[in-house]
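Quick illustration, no need to memorize.
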Amino acid sequence: MFNAQQLKDRMNSQPFRPFRLCLSDGKTFDITNHDAAFVKRNAIEIGLDADPNGLAERFVECAILHITRIEDVVAA
């Protein structure tokens, strides 16, 4: 089980390492840079469909309670 502080620590790690959030419903979301998501007390807002400048087209909110694991994403 994860908490907001663990996610915040991962988002602020130096150097940043891209990671994937795996949720209880089978969905996954890749966090590719420290600006791609915003950690809240009980949820994380994840930017999706970023343009070439990194600006998100839309956001999805995921309850931290539903995060089952965090995986490192290997850069292509």
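The helical segments are 4-11.
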